[in-house]
Every structure is written in C-alpha cells, then in structure tokens.
C-alpha cells in the first residue's frame, strides 16, 4: 500500500473519530441547556465554529503521529511535495466533496421549508459537512487505487 | 478511470538503463514514486510535459516510450 493510500485511511479514521466525539459532545450539551430561538442559533453557530480549529489541530497531531510511525515502520520518507497526479486526484475529490455538501445544503434548506426546527437544519448541515469530507477522502482513496 | 488508452514501456526502459529504480526515475522527472507506479500499471496518463521529461531521461523519442491505442468501440465516421 502506498503512502498516499495509508494517509487517506488515517484521514478517514481521524475524521470519523473527531466528528463522532465532537457531535456526541455537542448533542449532550444541547440536551443539557434549555434554549430559546435566539440562543439556538448562537449555540449551533459556536458549535460549528469551534469544530473548525478543533478538527484542524487534531488532524495535524494525528498526521504527525502517522508520519513518525510510518517512517519508523517502513523506513520510507514522506513525499515532500504533491505532483500532477496528487493535484488531479485532489481536484476530483474536492469536486465530489462539494457536490455532496451541496446536496446536504439543499436538504438543510428543505428542512426549513418544511417547518422543522432550526436545530434540524444545523444538524443536517453538520452531518452533510461530515459526509462530504468522507466522500472526498473515499474518492481520493479510490483514485489512488484504481487510477485516474 | 481505470486503464488508460496510453500505454508505455517505462518498466523495461528502466531495466535497460542500469536497472534504474522507480524512485530514481521519479526524482529525475520531479514526481513522486507513486506516480511512476501508476503510469507503469497504465492507471495514469501523464501530462505532455511529464511524458517529454521521461523521454528525455531515457534519451528516446516520445513515441518510443509511449503509445496510443484507440478505443475499438469508438467508430470514427
């Protein structure tokens, strides 16, 4: 298995782990606090904003650990740059990811049209962001394995 | 996706050039080893620029390194 494939598998696992833990934490907090309409927006807004730095820091730490373990185990140096194949695969994965998120965004808007609670809209947005990221990683993994 | 219509004989050319490794070729043409692996498996058609760089490394014309096999299902009218 190539370095890129292993890196994508680690990304996949770290995304699932970080998002699941964070989402469970947010849902627990949501049930603990009684929110009115204005506070609901503030709650979900801050929940999504906090997720961004948390997931970036956690992923950096996980990737550094993976890089160290991989170098020790395989004695293979990490590629220091991304070449044309890496860039092409990344572009295709980003495209898939955007389509999935777009679908989630439409579903989130539909939830508002159907008079569902604002929290439902935020949960759908959160979930579609998660699924979009997974779709991007899986696309990369597939393209590295099957070719472009 | 999948098998490319452009095939190559990079593997045999590497072998005939002092058994050059994939990593050595990758460093000479400025890509990662994974890209050389993908090309040798016909899983990736390189850009024209990369194709020329590979041909220059082997000191051969482009056509001697890469060949194009048109899809027989496509009928040209």
Automatic annotation (TrEMBL), chain A:
Keywords: Membrane, Transmembrane, Transmembrane helix. The keyword Membrane applies. The chain crosses the membrane at residues 9-27, 47-69, 96-114, 120-144. This is Uncharacterized protein.
TrEMBL record, chain B:
GO terms for molecular function: DNA binding. Keywords: DNA-binding. Residues 10-65 form the HTH cro/C1-type domain. InterPro entries: Cro/C1-type_HTH, Lambda_DNA-bd_dom_sf. PANTHER family: DNA-BIDING PHAGE PROTEIN, TRACRIPTIONAL REGULATORY PROTEIN-RELATED-RELATED. This is Putative transcriptional regulator. It comes from Paenibacillus endophyticus. The lineage of its organism: Bacteria, Bacillati, Bacillota, Bacilli, Bacillales.
